[in-house]
Amino acid sequence: MRKTLHSLPYFSANFENKRLNMSSVFNTPESQAGLGLQYFIHGWKLIFQRQLLPFVIFPILINALLMAGLIWLFFANIGGLLESLLPSWLEWLSVVLIPLIFLLILVGFYFAFTTLANFIAAPFNALLAEKVEQQLTGENLAEMRFTELLKDVPRMLAREWRKMLYSLPRLLALFILGFIPVLGQTVVPVLAFIFSAWLLAIQYCDYPFDNHKISFARMRNALREQRVMNFTFGALVSLFTVIPFINLVVMPVAVCGATAMWVGEYRNFFLDKTNDGLAYQKPSLQDKRQRGIVPKA
After folding, report:
1. Angle at the Cα of 216 (from 232 to 58), degrees rounded to 5?
2. Contact assessment for residue 90 and residue 101, using Cβ atoms and an 8 Å cutoff
3. Interval 264-281: pLDDT, tens
4. Rounded to whole angstroms, how far apart are CA atoms 33 and 230?
């Protein structure tokens, strides 16, 4: 008999003591999209767990302070920026150009906000990912003490810089394509949303991967193997990021959901020492049965 989502260990009260792999039941593209949705929903559930609340608060505070500062900066300078970016000889096109320039400035501020937030919150997000993994697996992981956290800050910031180097050339290409007539108004917005969803999946899935010192390249290759699931997860994060007030809590929600995804989809493979140095390959049903992730037929 086919299992339902709520009959899986992932949704049971004893989830933290069970090893899971939801993809053992859901293997089609449609069900992979469902997996992305379920991990995102579970992220919302996790942020309200009492044991995790202290680690959730810091990313929310960082988001709130940065957003308040950038909103003030945006509205305090938007008038001057619009005037300086619109030459006098193009005033006759102001009806068309002012909304376009306004949108470009808004996108610039949004990118600045997300970049700053990710850099500043990286250590706290890594700590939150560790605590979520502990709770979901029931294992006593090597705890990240404050002194160790400080020592790891340069490595975490270097990882954030690595992600930025990955995204900037692609964002720049989309920005340039946006000026091409017709293409810029039809295809580019769709491509921008798809790429934004992929980037956000990378951004938040990277925290649990990085906690285990798994390289950026290996992490990215692993996400590609289940791209529909990861795209769905990233798309939901992207959509909720633009909702006022709710976007303040999206960061910890995404970290919690991505860590649940790490535990459910990737952890068993990457922490198996016999696989060190190999590229991630989605485990077969037989492999999962041998590891005890799913029951034998």
Report:
1. 70
2. no
3. 999 988 887 445 444 445
4. 8
Return the HEC string of the chain.
CCCCHHHCHHHCCCHHHCCCCHHHCCCCHHHHHHHHHHHHHHHHHHCCCCCCHHHHHHHHHHHHHHHHHHHHHHHHHHHHHHHHHCCHHHHHHHHHHHHHHHHHHHHHHHHHHHHHHHHHHHHHHHHHHHHHHHHHHCCCCCCCCHHHHHHHHHHHHHHHHHHHHHHHHHHHHHHHHCCCCCHHHHHHHHHHHHHHHHHHHHHHHHHHHHHCCCCHHHHHHHHHHCHHHHHHHHHHHHHHHCCCCHHHCHHHHHHHHHHHHHHHHHHHHHCCHHHCCCCCCCCCHHHHHHHCCCCCC
Ordered by start, the domain boundaries in the chain are: 33-272+279-284
What are the tens digits of pLDDT across the range 20-57? 444 443 455 568 888 999 999 999 999 999 889 888 88
Residues 6+ apart with CB under 8 A from 16: 135, 136, 137, 138
User: What tokens does 277 get?
Assistant: 């140095």
